[in-house]
Amino acid sequence: MPLPSHKVTICGIPELSLHCSVGVSHVLSIIDTHEPRPPALDHYSTIEHELIRFDDVVAEYPGFEACTPDHIAKVLDFGERVHALPDSHVLVHCHAGISRSTAAAAILMCQHAPGHEEAAFLKLLGMRKHGWPNTRMVEFADTLLERDGALLRGLLAYRRALLQEKPHLSEVIRNIGRGHELPV
Question: What pTM value is reported for the model?
Answer without folding.
Answer: 0.95
